[in-house]
Every structure is written in C-alpha cells, then in structure tokens.
Write a structure and sequence with these properties.
- It contains one helix and eleven strands.
- Helix content is 16%, strand content 44%.
- By secondary structure, it is α+β, with helices and mostly antiparallel strands.
- Strand 1 and strand 2 form a beta hairpin.
C-alpha cells in the first residue's frame, strides 16, 4: 500500500513539475506602442535564442499564425505588416508540422493600422516553438488608449 501511495505521489510531483515548467516558459516578449503621426499600433516581439515565432501568414497544415485582434472594432483593421529583416525571418521546413513555414527569429516588429484611431486596445495571439517542442497558443493583451 505504501509503495502505491509513494509511486502516486512521485508521479503527481513529476507531472506538476513539468506543467509548471511549461507555464513558466515565455520565449517571446512583447512591447506595444502607438505612433500618433501614422496612426499605427507597433508590436515588437523579442524572441529568445533557439525559439521562433510563426508568421501571420501560414498554410492550413501549419501552426496557429500570429494574429492581432482589436477590441471595439470587431477585430478589423485597415492593414498589418511585419518588418521582415532577412536576418530574422526564414522559410524553413518544419519537421513538427511537416511543411515549409515562415518563422521569425530573434525579433520582429508588426505595424497595425486600425480603421479608427480610437481602436488601440486588443490582443495578439501567437504560437512559438523550438526544435523539440511547441508551446500552446498564447494571448497577450494591450491597451494603448489615450489617458
């Protein structure tokens, strides 16, 4: 009886440790700002070494693409683009998804032009991986409304 209890406690500890470790991983750090002159939301992502962030455009066999949603605007915006510094973006064959995907390494800056300058809060949903694992999709909220 004691060995079953000991085994169960050990197994539970291992599972909880792994779950806690995965929840603590944050290989992509976001910074949001607003450019008043151009009416642009600027979303800068810094990506830890060994990790990559998937592009906003992916094929249907791939991961969840990076996507921005603006509140109070049904999520719509006029346009969005990413600065694609050739040193930090690659079209790679991804073994986990078994397809060629666009990935950002080290850093990327997205510029989002809202339909109206009053729409400056929302969230980014993204997925990131390294060469051995992917983290579940994550949402990061931002609020850039004037004070």
């Amino acid at each position: 009886m004691i060995s079953k209890l000991s085994y169960t406690i050990t197994l539970l500890f291992v599972i909880l440790t792994k779950v806690a470790f995965l929840q603590e991983l944050a290989p992509v750090n976001w910074h949001f700002s607003y450019n008043n002159e151009q009416n642009l939301i600027i979303a800068e992502a810094k990506i830890d070494s060994g990790w990559y962030l998937y592009s906003q455009i992916q094929n249907e066999d791939g991961p969840i693409p990076t996507a921005f949603y603006l509140e109070n605007n049904n999520g719509e915006f006029e346009q969005m683009f990413a600065n694609r510094n050739s040193d930090y973006v690659k079209n790679d064959y991804d073994e986990m998804f078994e397809t060629t995907l666009t990935k950002f390494y080290t850093e990327v800056t997205f510029s989002i032009k809202p339909l109206n300058e009053n729409y400056k809060n929302g969230y980014v949903e993204f997925m990131c991986c390294d060469n051995t694992k992917c983290l579940p999709p994550k949402k990061i909220y931002f609020n850039l409304n004037k004070n």
